Amino acid sequence: MKKLFIAAIAVFGFATANAQYKAEKGDLQTSVDFRPFNNGGKEMFDNIGINASYFVSDKDAIRLGLNFGLNNEKQGESTATTTKDTRKSTLFGIAAGYERHFGKFDRLDIYAGAEAELSLKSSSAKSENTAGYTEIKGAQSTAGANRGYTQFGVGVFTGANFYVYKKLYIGAEIEFAFSNTSWKKIETANGTTSTEVAPKATGTELKFAVNPALRLGWTF
């Protein structure tokens, strides 16, 4: 029995020592990104990302990413005379790109690449009381806070994944990107009357971003 136990430990040790931690040609690498700390924790889902990378070689991969977010806040519903405020926003984004992986470390995977991304965001607010309601379309305030938009961007990135076990990793990423944003117009509505508060607008931005995400990934 003792010999069998020792043999089992030896086999397990050999398998662990020879485990293939990182992805290789033909593997599909997937991950989920969580960002639970933004906006004071008010949003149900601030921004969750789902990513997939297919390795066409041991060092090269093509990747596809989806991002989505949902905000739904309600205030002032305690009495019939109190104004009830509701603010909503939704976000959807899709990105496609290329990754180049470096390094000869068993557990640490360092990579860099480029991608293009399209993001769509809608936003609105509504205040109701016994006298009627007022609705804001295109943003959550007439000042343009949390304004809806359509955005297209291209960028370069680098990141690192650490494999805590065979095919299971955690990681983070930084990006340098250029984006063009088309902001939606802002309107207020009261009954059948609508008034334009701010017209559509466009803008460009060159930014450096660190994604404060908790990333958990698997390789198949």
Q: Structural class, judged by helices and strands?
A: mainly beta
CATH architecture descriptor: Beta Barrel
CATH class: Mainly Beta
Total number of helices = 1
Low-confidence stretches: 1-18, 39-45
SSE topology string: HEEEEEEEEEEE
Biggest sheet character:
8 strands, antiparallel, barrel
Percent helix, as a range, is: under 10%
| CATH fold topology | Porin
**Overall morphology:** elongated
- Estimate the strand proportion: over 45%
How far the N terminus sits from the C terminus, by CA atoms, comes to 36 Å
Number of separate strands: 11
- Side-by-side strand order of the widest sheet: 1-2-3-4-5-7-8-11
Please tell me about this protein's structure.
Helix content is 7%, strand content 65%. It is mainly beta and 220 residues long. The chain has a single domain, classed as Porin. An eight-stranded antiparallel β-barrel has the order 1-2-3-4-5-7-8-11. Strand 7 (149-165) and strand 8 form a beta hairpin. The chain is elongated. Mean pLDDT is 81; it is low at 1-18 and 39-45.
